[in-house]
Amino acid sequence: MATFHKEKIIFVHIPKTGGTFFTSQIVNFSMKNYFNSVNLFGYPGMGLLLKEELYENILKDGQDEKKIILKSKKFFKKITGTYNPCTQHLSYKIILEYYNNVYDLDVSNYEAFAFVRNPIDRIVSGLYRKKIKDVESFLSTIKKSLTDNSPEMYKKFCHFQTQASLIDGMKLENLIDVKYLSSNKKVKNYIEKLNRGKKNSCINKNESSNQGKDSYKEFKMKIINNFSKDISDIYREDLLLYNKITKTKN
Predict the structure, then answer these.
(1) Which residue from 4, 57, 162, 187 has the least number of CB within 10 angstroms?
(2) Domain ranges, residue 170
């Protein structure tokens, strides 16, 4: 996720839904510019907020950066069960709680948006990326982690969180089907606004090259033929949500 306090916008990054492509369109969005989980915990995950905004918009009189880091660690340990969750993929509700508890800042009035994807396609993409061989065993572990709300779900398995849990509390009209990412007017407006008048000279027009690969097509067919029912059972709520979203025009 990424929070832009100047524009009062929150981007909730659901794994494998084109979020990396979207953030690549934003000039200021880079690891070096972010006060994120790398700075906080030494864990590779992009998120939280721009460094400049930490000082200009967030830290209040008397607040100290080191104390903020300590409060952040304690917060994540309490909420997720781990000191170093993947902050790139935090849920909307955790984002609200984070700013409220750590910075004493209410961001519930910020405009929050996210991209969503067909649940089966999303999980197939995640399994392919992770190079999972024993899919049956892996899906069983994911199901247990989701059921138990295990800390592993916020760290090791963060790419397999449910879309429904990540966007709970958000407005339905701000959930954009990833199929329309490159043509959606609202997405173009977000990019223009968040670039703050600057142009991105390194636009990556190819969000993912995996889908065109023969190995990916073969892998996807194998998963759909053998595990589509298992995935549908685990992500039943996501399927219902996605069907609801696709009935509206993106």
Answers:
(1) 57
(2) 2-246
User: How far is the C-alpha of 81 from the C-alpha of 198, rounded, in Å?
Assistant: 40
pLDDT in tens, 114-141: 999 999 999 999 999 999 999 999 999 9
Please state, in angstroms and rounded to a whole number, the distance separating the CA atoms of residues 137 and 24.
Answer: 34
How many domains does the structure of the chain reveal? Answer: 1
Residue 84's Cα: distance from chain center in Å? 15
Q: Which of 181, 179, 162 is nearest to 246 (CA)?
A: 179
Single-letter amino acid code for the residue at 221: M
Nearest to 14 by CA among 159, 128, 120: 159
* pTM over cut 0.90: no
Residue 54, CA distances (Å) to 46, 49, 91, 181, 219 in order:
15, 7, 21, 29, 43
